[in-house]
Amino acid sequence: MDLPSYFRKNIHKYISYGDSIVIALSGGPDSTALLCLLNSIKKEYGLKLYAAHFNHMLRARASYSDALFAEKLCRSMSVPFFAGKKDIRALSVKKKGGVEKIARVERYRFLLKCAGSAKAGKIAAGHNLDDNAETVLMRLLTGSGIAGLSGIAQRRDIFPGEFGLKLKDGAPRFFTVIRPLSGAPKAEILKFLKDNRIKFAVDGTNGVNIYTRNKLRNRLIPAIEKEFNPGVKHTLAATGAILSAEDDYMEKAAMAAFSDCVVAGGDRAEINLDAFLKYHEALRRRVAMAALKSVLKSGRKAGYDAVETVLESASNRSTRQLPEGFLCSVNGSRLVIARACAPAEQKGVRVNLQDGKNVFFGGYEFSFEPSARKGRPKFGGADIACVDLDKLRLPLTVRHRHRGEK
Predict the structure, then answer these.
(1) Is 5 helix (H, G, I), strand (E, B) or coil?
(2) pLDDT tens-digit series, residues 155-207
(3) Cα separation, 204 vs 229, whole angstroms
(4) Taking a C-beta distance cutoff of 8 angstroms, is the pair 39, 228 a contact?
(5) How far is CA 322 from CA 267, 284, 329, in A?
(6) What is the value of pTM for the model shown?
(7) Backbone torsions φ then ψ of 218, nearest 5 degrees
(8) How far is CA 218 from CA 14, 106, 181, in A?
(9) Calpha distance 366→90 (Å, rounded)
């Protein structure tokens, strides 16, 4: 593959004449090659190019060297340059989150701010075929649906609200992230830079096997190439492309089904069970997920377990607990996902220890069993509590927590 020829042949899939584009420039080989290639067609396509470098402050002096290199490179091409930084390690400790995840969020927040300031509708990233293969394999190993196994999208619309940003008036309503090098092998990118004597920054942490992606890149994939399939990167990337197309088709079908059987607004979503249960299970899962995302504050909580809870509630017409205090229950021919509790549940449910009957409240089932056993009780799990019956004030009531209680 000749990288410039590949780039010119495929770039029309990502850009239009007169586009304003912010390039995510780390200074590494991929983003450096992307900047050079886009700059080579700038006049031909009437492009307005900007570059944005985000310093994660993870590699001490080397991080600042990369920032200086990126700025110098842009100055040599007369490309306007944005620079930002944040102490990701300190932030991960404060927020009790993973370094990689927080770095990604903060990086995208910065890129969106830059694109908003430049009034640029597109953000170009330098992901390549190897990155895509690693992503597919990583998600396969850690667990994912078809959307995750699709790998890194060649282009994706992204809204500021996804990262909790509010941009100034005049900024684009949404941005399109493009990856023009997503089908190019890493080796071809390095060859292009070497042949044209283009310098780039080297991230020393890429060779340190403390992150999952590094372990895949440096250990697992080379082992697979050696023992099983020399072309595993192309195989994984091709699989991701196939699944991406199928996921797109399924998502369109799911949105049509959602419009047909779901009414959602505010803290409530209602699903027409007659229409819902006629769909294939695969579509029901996607419709249930879309309904959950329409009411939950955190879309990540609309995962496998929550979707299974909705499907179970629909099939056996039971009441089930969902994340963020939501309940899933059946009311006639409708499955209702709502935060509000029924009046009877708000008042609480009286417990009669004499009849031994279980109590249903808030989507849960509670059982009570008096015991004559003396001494320190043995707990059977996180869902069992033992209390001293002599110190309780009867009758007992199961209700929601009042302020000040725990």
Answers:
(1) helix
(2) 988 887 778 777 777 778 889 999 999 999 999 999 999 999 999 998 766 66
(3) 28
(4) no
(5) 13, 17, 10
(6) 0.71
(7) -95, -20
(8) 30, 26, 21
(9) 43
